[in-house]
Here is the input.
Amino acid sequence: MADQNALQLILSGDATLFAIVWLSLLVSLSAVALAAFFGMPLGALLALTRFPGRPVLVVLLNALMGLPPVVVGLLVYLLLSRSGPLGGIGILFTPGAMVIAQTILIAPIIAALTRQTIEDLWHEYRDELTAMDVGPMRRMTTLLWDARFSLITALLAGFGRAAAEVGAVMIVGGNIDGFTRTMTTAIALETSKGNLPLAMGLGLILVAIVIAINAALWGTRLWADRQMG
Amino acid sequence: MHALMADLPLVLDNVSLDVGGARLIDRVDLTISPGAPTLIVGPNGAGKTSLLRLCMGLVVPTSGRVSWGSRLAAGRSRRAIVFQRPVMLRRSVAANVRFALAQAGVPRREHAARALALLDRVGLLDLAGRPARRLSSGEQQRLALARALARDPELLLLDEPTANLDPAATRAVEDIVLSAAQSGIKIMMTTHDLGQVRRLAGDVIFLVRGTVCERRPMAELFDHPLMPETAAFLRGDLVI
Here is the structure.
Protein backbone atom coordinates (compact mmCIF):
# COMPACT_ATOMS: atom_id res chain seq x y z
CA MET A 1 0.00 0.00 0.00
CA ALA A 2 2.82 2.36 0.81
CA ASP A 3 4.10 2.45 -2.77
CA GLN A 4 0.91 3.72 -4.37
CA ASN A 5 -0.81 7.03 -4.02
CA ALA A 6 -4.16 7.45 -2.34
CA LEU A 7 -6.19 7.96 -5.49
CA GLN A 8 -4.98 4.70 -7.02
CA LEU A 9 -5.82 2.92 -3.77
CA ILE A 10 -9.35 4.22 -3.74
CA LEU A 11 -9.94 3.57 -7.42
CA SER A 12 -8.53 0.06 -7.28
CA GLY A 13 -10.70 -0.78 -4.28
CA ASP A 14 -7.70 -1.62 -2.17
CA ALA A 15 -8.78 -4.12 0.50
CA THR A 16 -6.35 -2.85 3.13
CA LEU A 17 -7.53 0.72 2.70
CA PHE A 18 -11.17 -0.24 2.96
CA ALA A 19 -10.48 -2.35 6.03
CA ILE A 20 -8.96 0.75 7.65
CA VAL A 21 -11.92 2.96 6.72
CA TRP A 22 -14.37 0.30 7.86
CA LEU A 23 -12.65 -0.17 11.22
CA SER A 24 -12.52 3.58 11.80
CA LEU A 25 -16.24 3.93 11.17
CA LEU A 26 -17.10 0.85 13.18
CA VAL A 27 -15.14 2.03 16.23
CA SER A 28 -16.35 5.63 16.13
CA LEU A 29 -20.00 4.82 15.45
CA SER A 30 -20.02 2.12 18.16
CA ALA A 31 -18.56 4.65 20.56
CA VAL A 32 -21.24 7.20 19.59
CA ALA A 33 -23.98 4.60 20.14
CA LEU A 34 -22.62 3.56 23.53
CA ALA A 35 -21.94 7.12 24.63
CA ALA A 36 -25.49 8.11 23.61
CA PHE A 37 -26.91 5.12 25.50
CA PHE A 38 -25.24 6.25 28.72
CA GLY A 39 -24.83 9.97 28.10
CA MET A 40 -28.34 10.96 27.04
CA PRO A 41 -30.22 9.58 30.06
CA LEU A 42 -27.47 10.96 32.29
CA GLY A 43 -27.74 14.40 30.71
CA ALA A 44 -31.54 14.31 30.96
CA LEU A 45 -31.36 13.23 34.60
CA LEU A 46 -29.01 16.07 35.39
CA ALA A 47 -31.32 18.48 33.57
CA LEU A 48 -34.40 17.43 35.55
CA THR A 49 -33.05 16.99 39.06
CA ARG A 50 -32.07 19.50 41.71
CA PHE A 51 -29.70 18.51 44.48
CA PRO A 52 -26.83 20.07 46.42
CA GLY A 53 -23.65 20.03 44.38
CA ARG A 54 -25.50 19.95 41.07
CA PRO A 55 -23.86 23.14 39.72
CA VAL A 56 -20.45 21.62 40.42
CA LEU A 57 -21.44 18.51 38.50
CA VAL A 58 -22.70 20.58 35.56
CA VAL A 59 -19.45 22.55 35.38
CA LEU A 60 -17.43 19.35 35.70
CA LEU A 61 -19.39 17.68 32.93
CA ASN A 62 -18.91 20.69 30.67
CA ALA A 63 -15.20 20.66 31.47
CA LEU A 64 -14.97 16.95 30.61
CA MET A 65 -15.98 17.84 27.05
CA GLY A 66 -12.39 19.01 26.69
CA LEU A 67 -10.79 15.77 27.91
CA PRO A 68 -7.49 15.26 26.04
CA PRO A 69 -7.70 12.01 24.05
CA VAL A 70 -4.19 10.93 25.07
CA VAL A 71 -5.15 11.20 28.73
CA VAL A 72 -8.23 9.06 28.17
CA GLY A 73 -6.05 6.64 26.19
CA LEU A 74 -3.56 6.46 29.01
CA LEU A 75 -6.30 5.91 31.59
CA VAL A 76 -7.91 3.08 29.62
CA TYR A 77 -4.45 1.65 28.90
CA LEU A 78 -3.71 1.51 32.64
CA LEU A 79 -7.08 -0.11 33.30
CA LEU A 80 -6.73 -2.74 30.59
CA SER A 81 -3.01 -3.49 30.73
CA ARG A 82 -2.06 -6.90 32.06
CA SER A 83 -1.27 -5.54 35.52
CA GLY A 84 -4.27 -3.22 35.55
CA PRO A 85 -7.56 -3.85 37.38
CA LEU A 86 -9.29 -5.00 34.18
CA GLY A 87 -6.23 -6.68 32.69
CA GLY A 88 -7.83 -10.10 33.08
CA ILE A 89 -10.25 -9.61 30.20
CA GLY A 90 -7.33 -9.19 27.83
CA ILE A 91 -8.73 -6.69 25.36
CA LEU A 92 -5.89 -4.18 25.27
CA PHE A 93 -4.78 -3.58 21.65
CA THR A 94 -8.14 -4.70 20.24
CA PRO A 95 -10.93 -2.68 18.61
CA GLY A 96 -12.96 -3.28 21.79
CA ALA A 97 -10.46 -1.28 23.83
CA MET A 98 -10.63 1.49 21.23
CA VAL A 99 -14.41 1.64 21.52
CA ILE A 100 -14.17 1.87 25.30
CA ALA A 101 -11.65 4.70 25.14
CA GLN A 102 -13.68 6.68 22.61
CA THR A 103 -16.89 6.10 24.55
CA ILE A 104 -15.29 7.60 27.66
CA LEU A 105 -14.00 10.46 25.54
CA ILE A 106 -17.33 11.44 23.99
CA ALA A 107 -19.92 10.43 26.61
CA PRO A 108 -19.35 13.72 28.48
CA ILE A 109 -19.86 15.66 25.25
CA ILE A 110 -23.16 13.95 24.53
CA ALA A 111 -24.27 14.16 28.18
CA ALA A 112 -23.41 17.86 28.50
CA LEU A 113 -25.16 18.85 25.26
CA THR A 114 -28.16 16.68 26.15
CA ARG A 115 -28.35 18.35 29.57
CA GLN A 116 -28.57 21.77 27.96
CA THR A 117 -31.10 20.73 25.33
CA ILE A 118 -33.39 18.93 27.79
CA GLU A 119 -33.21 21.74 30.32
CA ASP A 120 -34.31 24.27 27.70
CA LEU A 121 -37.15 22.04 26.56
CA TRP A 122 -38.21 21.41 30.15
CA HIS A 123 -38.70 25.14 30.70
CA GLU A 124 -41.08 25.10 27.76
CA TYR A 125 -42.90 21.87 28.74
CA ARG A 126 -42.92 22.14 32.54
CA ASP A 127 -46.42 23.55 33.09
CA GLU A 128 -48.00 21.37 30.45
CA LEU A 129 -46.43 18.12 31.74
CA THR A 130 -47.09 18.98 35.38
CA ALA A 131 -50.74 19.65 34.57
CA MET A 132 -50.92 16.23 32.89
CA ASP A 133 -49.54 14.50 36.01
CA VAL A 134 -46.44 13.29 34.16
CA GLY A 135 -44.13 11.56 36.66
CA PRO A 136 -40.34 11.99 36.80
CA MET A 137 -39.45 8.92 34.71
CA ARG A 138 -41.99 9.69 32.01
CA ARG A 139 -40.83 13.32 31.95
CA MET A 140 -37.35 12.18 31.05
CA THR A 141 -38.44 9.87 28.25
CA THR A 142 -40.96 12.42 26.92
CA LEU A 143 -38.37 15.19 26.79
CA LEU A 144 -35.73 12.95 25.21
CA TRP A 145 -38.20 11.85 22.57
CA ASP A 146 -39.48 15.34 21.81
CA ALA A 147 -35.91 16.68 21.67
CA ARG A 148 -34.83 13.84 19.40
CA PHE A 149 -34.02 16.03 16.43
CA SER A 150 -32.19 18.65 18.47
CA LEU A 151 -30.14 15.87 20.04
CA ILE A 152 -28.74 15.04 16.61
CA THR A 153 -26.38 17.96 17.22
CA ALA A 154 -25.05 16.20 20.33
CA LEU A 155 -24.49 13.00 18.33
CA LEU A 156 -22.69 14.93 15.61
CA ALA A 157 -20.39 16.60 18.12
CA GLY A 158 -19.59 13.21 19.63
CA PHE A 159 -19.00 11.58 16.28
CA GLY A 160 -16.80 14.41 15.10
CA ARG A 161 -14.65 14.10 18.17
CA ALA A 162 -14.39 10.30 17.90
CA ALA A 163 -13.62 10.26 14.21
CA ALA A 164 -10.96 12.93 14.47
CA GLU A 165 -9.01 11.83 17.53
CA VAL A 166 -5.80 9.84 17.25
CA GLY A 167 -4.32 9.84 20.75
CA ALA A 168 -6.71 7.45 22.47
CA VAL A 169 -7.02 4.84 19.71
CA MET A 170 -3.26 4.91 19.16
CA ILE A 171 -2.47 4.16 22.81
CA VAL A 172 -5.10 1.48 23.50
CA GLY A 173 -5.28 0.08 19.96
CA GLY A 174 -1.59 0.04 19.17
CA ASN A 175 -2.04 0.80 15.45
CA ILE A 176 -1.64 -2.87 14.52
CA ASP A 177 -1.71 -3.35 10.75
CA GLY A 178 -4.90 -5.06 9.65
CA PHE A 179 -6.34 -5.20 13.16
CA THR A 180 -6.44 -1.89 15.01
CA ARG A 181 -5.21 0.54 12.38
CA THR A 182 -7.68 3.37 11.83
CA MET A 183 -7.58 6.28 9.43
CA THR A 184 -6.14 8.66 11.99
CA THR A 185 -3.44 6.29 13.24
CA ALA A 186 -2.57 5.36 9.64
CA ILE A 187 -2.22 9.04 8.78
CA ALA A 188 0.09 9.57 11.75
CA LEU A 189 2.15 6.52 10.76
CA GLU A 190 2.41 7.36 7.05
CA THR A 191 3.35 10.95 7.88
CA SER A 192 6.15 9.81 10.18
CA LYS A 193 7.35 7.45 7.41
CA GLY A 194 7.46 10.36 4.99
CA ASN A 195 4.70 8.92 2.82
CA LEU A 196 2.92 12.25 2.57
CA PRO A 197 0.74 11.58 -0.51
CA LEU A 198 -0.82 8.53 1.13
CA ALA A 199 -1.27 10.38 4.45
CA MET A 200 -2.90 13.22 2.55
CA GLY A 201 -5.16 10.84 0.64
CA LEU A 202 -6.32 9.16 3.82
CA GLY A 203 -6.92 12.55 5.35
CA LEU A 204 -9.14 13.53 2.46
CA ILE A 205 -11.15 10.32 2.76
CA LEU A 206 -11.60 10.93 6.47
CA VAL A 207 -12.78 14.49 5.95
CA ALA A 208 -15.12 13.37 3.16
CA ILE A 209 -16.70 10.72 5.39
CA VAL A 210 -17.16 13.14 8.27
CA ILE A 211 -18.78 15.66 5.94
CA ALA A 212 -21.04 13.00 4.43
CA ILE A 213 -22.26 11.80 7.83
CA ASN A 214 -22.81 15.36 9.04
CA ALA A 215 -24.71 16.23 5.88
CA ALA A 216 -26.92 13.17 6.22
CA LEU A 217 -27.79 13.89 9.85
CA TRP A 218 -28.24 17.59 9.24
CA GLY A 219 -30.53 16.83 6.33
CA THR A 220 -32.54 14.63 8.67
CA ARG A 221 -32.81 17.46 11.13
CA LEU A 222 -33.92 20.01 8.53
CA TRP A 223 -36.47 17.57 7.21
CA ALA A 224 -37.72 16.93 10.73
CA ASP A 225 -37.94 20.64 11.50
CA ARG A 226 -40.13 21.09 8.49
CA GLN A 227 -42.23 18.08 9.48
CA MET A 228 -42.54 18.72 13.21
CA GLY A 229 -42.09 22.45 13.52
CA MET B 1 -61.25 6.39 35.79
CA HIS B 2 -64.52 6.10 37.70
CA ALA B 3 -62.62 5.02 40.76
CA LEU B 4 -61.03 8.46 41.00
CA MET B 5 -62.25 10.67 43.76
CA ALA B 6 -64.12 13.87 43.06
CA ASP B 7 -62.25 17.13 42.54
CA LEU B 8 -65.26 19.27 43.34
CA PRO B 9 -66.05 21.29 45.28
CA LEU B 10 -62.86 23.25 44.83
CA VAL B 11 -62.36 25.42 47.89
CA LEU B 12 -59.90 28.27 48.35
CA ASP B 13 -59.67 29.18 51.99
CA ASN B 14 -58.09 32.59 52.68
CA VAL B 15 -55.53 31.98 49.93
CA SER B 16 -52.67 34.39 49.22
CA LEU B 17 -49.87 34.04 46.74
CA ASP B 18 -46.65 36.06 46.79
CA VAL B 19 -44.13 35.81 43.98
CA GLY B 20 -40.87 37.74 44.20
CA GLY B 21 -42.19 40.02 46.93
CA ALA B 22 -45.32 40.94 44.99
CA ARG B 23 -48.73 39.84 46.23
CA LEU B 24 -50.53 38.35 43.22
CA ILE B 25 -53.48 36.86 45.08
CA ASP B 26 -54.68 38.46 48.29
CA ARG B 27 -56.75 36.50 50.83
CA VAL B 28 -59.20 34.93 48.41
CA ASP B 29 -62.08 32.77 49.63
CA LEU B 30 -63.77 30.88 46.85
CA THR B 31 -65.91 27.78 46.43
CA ILE B 32 -66.39 26.25 43.02
CA SER B 33 -69.21 23.72 42.75
CA PRO B 34 -70.68 21.86 39.79
CA GLY B 35 -72.81 24.07 37.56
CA ALA B 36 -72.71 26.52 34.70
CA PRO B 37 -69.38 28.05 33.64
CA THR B 38 -67.71 30.51 35.99
CA LEU B 39 -65.98 33.29 34.08
CA ILE B 40 -63.20 35.32 35.62
CA VAL B 41 -62.77 38.88 34.42
CA GLY B 42 -60.62 41.76 35.54
CA PRO B 43 -57.87 44.09 34.40
CA ASN B 44 -54.45 42.86 33.29
CA GLY B 45 -52.38 41.85 36.27
CA ALA B 46 -55.43 41.31 38.46
CA GLY B 47 -54.23 37.77 39.13
CA LYS B 48 -56.54 35.81 36.81
CA THR B 49 -53.83 33.45 35.59
CA SER B 50 -52.40 33.04 39.10
CA LEU B 51 -55.86 32.16 40.37
CA LEU B 52 -56.24 29.44 37.72
CA ARG B 53 -52.78 28.05 38.52
CA LEU B 54 -53.72 27.86 42.19
CA CYS B 55 -56.97 26.12 41.29
CA MET B 56 -55.04 23.61 39.17
CA GLY B 57 -52.56 22.99 41.97
CA LEU B 58 -49.60 24.12 39.85
CA VAL B 59 -48.54 26.61 42.50
CA VAL B 60 -48.73 26.30 46.25
CA PRO B 61 -50.34 29.23 48.07
CA THR B 62 -48.07 31.35 50.25
CA SER B 63 -50.77 31.19 52.91
CA GLY B 64 -54.24 29.74 53.18
CA ARG B 65 -55.22 26.44 51.61
CA VAL B 66 -56.71 24.98 48.47
CA SER B 67 -58.66 21.74 48.55
CA TRP B 68 -60.34 19.60 45.94
CA GLY B 69 -63.30 17.49 47.02
CA SER B 70 -62.14 18.16 50.60
CA ARG B 71 -58.70 16.69 49.88
CA LEU B 72 -55.58 18.88 50.02
CA ALA B 73 -53.68 17.01 47.34
CA ALA B 74 -54.62 14.29 44.93
CA GLY B 75 -52.81 11.59 43.05
CA ARG B 76 -54.15 11.67 39.55
CA SER B 77 -56.61 14.52 39.44
CA ARG B 78 -59.79 14.99 37.49
CA ARG B 79 -59.02 18.53 36.56
CA ALA B 80 -57.41 19.85 33.45
CA ILE B 81 -56.09 23.21 32.29
CA VAL B 82 -55.64 24.85 28.92
CA PHE B 83 -52.94 27.50 29.08
CA GLN B 84 -53.20 30.76 27.23
CA ARG B 85 -50.36 29.63 24.98
CA PRO B 86 -50.59 25.84 25.09
CA VAL B 87 -47.40 23.96 24.32
CA MET B 88 -47.76 21.44 21.53
CA LEU B 89 -45.68 18.30 21.94
CA ARG B 90 -43.38 17.78 18.97
CA ARG B 91 -45.55 14.99 17.65
CA SER B 92 -48.59 14.56 15.47
CA VAL B 93 -51.98 15.93 16.46
CA ALA B 94 -53.27 12.45 17.26
CA ALA B 95 -50.11 11.58 19.21
CA ASN B 96 -50.64 14.66 21.39
CA VAL B 97 -54.07 13.36 22.37
CA ARG B 98 -52.79 9.80 22.86
CA PHE B 99 -50.13 11.15 25.20
CA ALA B 100 -52.80 12.88 27.30
CA LEU B 101 -54.89 9.68 27.31
CA ALA B 102 -51.91 7.65 28.50
CA GLN B 103 -51.25 10.13 31.30
CA ALA B 104 -54.91 9.97 32.29
CA GLY B 105 -54.54 6.23 32.78
CA VAL B 106 -56.62 5.12 29.80
CA PRO B 107 -55.65 1.58 28.72
CA ARG B 108 -53.40 1.58 25.67
CA ARG B 109 -55.74 -0.46 23.46
CA GLU B 110 -58.36 2.30 23.75
CA HIS B 111 -55.99 5.12 22.81
CA ALA B 112 -56.43 5.12 19.03
CA ALA B 113 -60.24 5.10 19.06
CA ARG B 114 -60.56 7.55 21.95
CA ALA B 115 -58.07 9.94 20.33
CA LEU B 116 -60.06 10.00 17.11
CA ALA B 117 -63.32 10.54 19.01
CA LEU B 118 -61.78 13.48 20.90
CA LEU B 119 -60.38 14.98 17.70
CA ASP B 120 -63.80 14.64 16.14
CA ARG B 121 -65.29 16.43 19.15
CA VAL B 122 -63.00 19.44 18.59
CA GLY B 123 -63.20 19.31 14.79
CA LEU B 124 -59.60 18.31 14.13
CA LEU B 125 -60.21 14.83 12.76
CA ASP B 126 -58.92 15.78 9.31
CA LEU B 127 -55.65 17.02 10.81
CA ALA B 128 -54.96 13.95 12.97
CA GLY B 129 -51.73 13.10 11.17
CA ARG B 130 -50.36 16.65 11.02
CA PRO B 131 -47.46 17.78 13.20
CA ALA B 132 -49.12 19.62 16.09
CA ARG B 133 -46.75 22.57 15.92
CA ARG B 134 -47.79 23.25 12.35
CA LEU B 135 -51.37 24.04 13.38
CA SER B 136 -52.78 27.58 13.45
CA SER B 137 -53.25 29.11 16.89
CA GLY B 138 -56.99 28.44 16.81
CA GLU B 139 -56.35 24.81 15.93
CA GLN B 140 -53.72 24.56 18.66
CA GLN B 141 -56.28 25.81 21.20
CA ARG B 142 -58.71 23.15 20.06
CA LEU B 143 -56.03 20.46 20.27
CA ALA B 144 -55.20 21.66 23.79
CA LEU B 145 -58.91 21.34 24.59
CA ALA B 146 -58.93 17.78 23.21
CA ARG B 147 -55.92 16.95 25.40
CA ALA B 148 -57.67 18.44 28.41
CA LEU B 149 -60.90 16.54 27.67
CA ALA B 150 -58.83 13.35 27.36
CA ARG B 151 -58.43 13.54 31.12
CA ASP B 152 -62.22 13.13 31.49
CA PRO B 153 -62.15 16.19 33.73
CA GLU B 154 -64.65 17.22 36.31
CA LEU B 155 -63.15 20.71 36.40
CA LEU B 156 -61.75 22.37 33.29
CA LEU B 157 -59.68 25.54 33.69
CA LEU B 158 -59.23 27.75 30.63
CA ASP B 159 -56.87 30.72 30.53
CA GLU B 160 -58.10 33.17 27.89
CA PRO B 161 -58.56 30.42 25.31
CA THR B 162 -59.76 32.85 22.65
CA ALA B 163 -57.25 35.67 23.10
CA ASN B 164 -55.83 36.55 19.67
CA LEU B 165 -58.29 34.35 17.80
CA ASP B 166 -60.48 35.57 14.97
CA PRO B 167 -64.29 35.34 15.36
CA ALA B 168 -64.60 32.02 13.52
CA ALA B 169 -61.90 30.38 15.63
CA THR B 170 -63.41 31.94 18.76
CA ARG B 171 -66.79 30.49 17.85
CA ALA B 172 -65.24 27.04 17.37
CA VAL B 173 -63.60 27.18 20.81
CA GLU B 174 -66.74 28.50 22.50
CA ASP B 175 -68.84 25.72 20.96
CA ILE B 176 -66.47 23.11 22.43
CA VAL B 177 -66.55 24.83 25.82
CA LEU B 178 -70.35 25.01 25.79
CA SER B 179 -70.74 21.35 24.85
CA ALA B 180 -68.24 20.41 27.57
CA ALA B 181 -70.25 22.45 30.07
CA GLN B 182 -73.47 20.78 28.94
CA SER B 183 -71.89 17.36 29.44
CA GLY B 184 -71.44 18.25 33.12
CA ILE B 185 -67.89 19.54 33.20
CA LYS B 186 -67.44 22.55 35.47
CA ILE B 187 -65.72 25.32 33.49
CA MET B 188 -63.59 28.06 35.02
CA MET B 189 -62.40 30.47 32.39
CA THR B 190 -60.66 33.82 32.26
CA THR B 191 -61.44 36.31 29.52
CA HIS B 192 -61.18 39.94 28.48
CA ASP B 193 -64.18 39.70 26.21
CA LEU B 194 -67.42 40.87 27.88
CA GLY B 195 -69.41 39.50 24.93
CA GLN B 196 -67.96 36.13 25.72
CA VAL B 197 -69.04 36.49 29.33
CA ARG B 198 -72.62 37.09 28.16
CA ARG B 199 -72.45 34.09 25.81
CA LEU B 200 -70.96 31.57 28.22
CA ALA B 201 -71.17 32.56 31.85
CA GLY B 202 -73.36 31.15 34.55
CA ASP B 203 -71.66 33.34 37.10
CA VAL B 204 -68.85 35.87 37.01
CA ILE B 205 -65.91 36.53 39.29
CA PHE B 206 -64.60 40.07 39.03
CA LEU B 207 -60.99 40.12 40.15
CA VAL B 208 -59.11 43.33 40.99
CA ARG B 209 -55.57 43.49 42.40
CA GLY B 210 -55.60 39.89 43.50
CA THR B 211 -58.89 40.03 45.37
CA VAL B 212 -62.39 38.91 44.46
CA CYS B 213 -64.14 42.23 44.07
CA GLU B 214 -67.51 40.70 43.25
CA ARG B 215 -68.95 37.30 42.38
CA ARG B 216 -72.51 37.13 41.07
CA PRO B 217 -74.69 35.36 38.53
CA MET B 218 -73.97 36.79 35.11
CA ALA B 219 -77.28 38.61 34.45
CA GLU B 220 -77.31 40.18 37.91
CA LEU B 221 -73.76 41.41 37.59
CA PHE B 222 -74.40 43.05 34.24
CA ASP B 223 -77.71 44.64 35.32
CA HIS B 224 -76.85 45.68 38.84
CA PRO B 225 -73.14 45.70 39.57
CA LEU B 226 -72.67 46.28 43.29
CA MET B 227 -69.12 47.56 43.32
CA PRO B 228 -68.06 50.81 41.64
CA GLU B 229 -65.01 49.03 40.09
CA THR B 230 -67.28 46.45 38.48
CA ALA B 231 -69.62 49.09 37.12
CA ALA B 232 -66.67 51.02 35.70
CA PHE B 233 -65.23 47.89 34.11
CA LEU B 234 -68.56 46.97 32.53
CA ARG B 235 -68.95 50.52 31.17
CA GLY B 236 -65.59 50.09 29.49
CA ASP B 237 -63.74 52.49 31.77
CA LEU B 238 -60.15 51.68 32.67
CA VAL B 239 -59.88 49.87 35.99
CA ILE B 240 -56.39 49.48 37.33
